[in-house]
Amino acid sequence: MQDFTPFSGSYLPQDVHFLLQPVEMEMTPVEQKEQLIQSGTRHYSEMLSQEPEPTAWHLDLFSQALDQGAGRLAREVIMLAKALIERFPQTPVVLTSLVRAGVPLGVMLQQTLRALGKESYHYGISIIRDRGIDSVALEWIEARHGTEGIVFVDGWTGKGAITGELTRSLKHRAGYPAQPRLVVLADPCGRSWLAASDDDWLIPFGIMGAPVSGMISRSIWSETGLHGCVKCDHLAQFECSRQLVDTVAEYRHTLNIDAIPACDWQPEQKAPLKLKSEQVISELAEQFNISSVNRIKPGIAEATRAVLRRVPDHVFVRSVDDPDVALLVYLAREKGLTITEAGDALGQYRAVTIIKKVL
């Protein structure tokens, strides 16, 4: 088994161990990266663009989102933690967060499970669309904990691509159920094993990158060993990973935890969500003659990140006056993008970004 040293980024060591290999690599300009991805010349996981510094406006909106959402985060993390305790009464919970979006939720779950007296462990590992989960990292976890208590953690689901990737990755691995145990905060498309809600809401860590994810880049594909990452030291002054989890922990201390129920996420809830999500994606693909649904990024978090990291073409919002899409609208206007108010045509989503076809 490959020898490596887990690290914790800007988090505390007891909160998470990243099973990634820090690397250095040349940055690829965003426009060039998009052309290489869409042409099939390079896979997105083989390149990184330099993550830009958040503007003062971006930082202000993050602070507002955290102020408004910390109470909800604290309550919903408790609901998820209680549900995990119910589902694993005798087994330690092994939180396996999917880098990067799953890590902040994983840290909050780790802290909450610990506060509730439940034995748990937390790791951050890579999963890459079309290429699967980091098998070296997963084998490292399995060797220490077995598979019985492993749950995979992501921040939210957009259209279910990661659920599909997890299903494919685990299909031939012993010890996993047919449906991956994927835990998320918000699941508007009905594709997770456990979710706190089906709302498309302004999750504070959904609108920030490295500064709220332990100060690492998204993961980089490696064929021979651990997947890699770049430490984003150029963003050190904007670090807010600890601010996020500490703020939520402070709220948790003010709540009557005994009065908060475990979240109830039933199969009958998921079927209509999945159907409606597929309908929205299909209609947008047909309307804009999109052959690859990877160019459609539904949900506030995915839509915002696409405008920040990719070459977007069009932004749809349910309402341009919705405060939860204020950052998305601001960024889209800064880039001169067309913003369309789509109302109920977006179904359960409050925002969708379409990536520009550059070839």
Offer a concise description of the structure:
By secondary structure, the protein is of the alpha/beta class. Helix content is 36%, strand content 15%. α2 crosses α3 (102-115), α2 (56-87) packs across α6 and α3 packs parallel to α6 (241-254).
Overview of this protein structure:
By secondary structure, the chain is α/β, with parallel strands linked by helices. The chain is 36% helix and 15% strand. It has 9 helices and 14 strands. The protein has helices spanning 30-39, 56-87, 102-115, 135-145, 161-170, 241-254, 267-287, 300-309, 326-334, and strands at 17-18, 21-22, 93-98, 120-125, 127-128, 132-133, 150-153, 182-186, 194-197, 228-229, 296-298, 312-317, 338-341, 351-355. Strands 1-4-3-7-8-9 form a 6-stranded parallel beta sheet.
